[in-house]
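Recap from last week: sequence in, structure out.
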Amino acid sequence: MRSAAPMTLNDRSTILSLLETRRSGRPREMVAPGPSNDELMQILAIAARTPDHGKLFPWRFMVVAPDQRDALANLLLEALPECDPNYGPAHVAKAQEFAHQAPTLVVLVAAPIAGHKIPLWEQELSVGASGMNLLLAAHALGYVASWITGWAAYSERVRAAFCAPGERIAGFMFIGSPGMLLEERPRAPLAAVARPWVPPSA
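Predicted structure tokens:
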């Protein structure tokens, strides 16, 4: 088996810069162009290169084509009264906007294998890792991406349109070009999330 070529200092610097600068964009502010079909397939292939204990592939990527956005909007409008009986015109407008925002939409589906020796929690971690890989791959190709859930991800009607029994929507992954300059968001101080382990007293 051929091993990967050693990374140069420039390679490492580029990769670290990529990891340090990725951030999510607002889908409603994304503009064309989105990734080409070849680029999208590359993004999804990279998303699938994730830790996967047991080689179960407990995730799927459902690509919503541009000419399917109206159908998605209709689905959301059918589901809206079930999720919020007190919905009004503003909720309808927001659902319409959600369905049509950003040039590219991939629905990340969690498809764990129930009753398998690999714990469900580990399979769900793999789903999350695939989503992070997708965001990084889009960023590496010069696009901006965002991972969104919201009420639609938890609607039974919407879930049934994308998922088989036992599966659920992990998120709506919107991808496009930034329509405006992205501002850095606050990050947790490293000292608050990384600390030495202290063994319990005997």
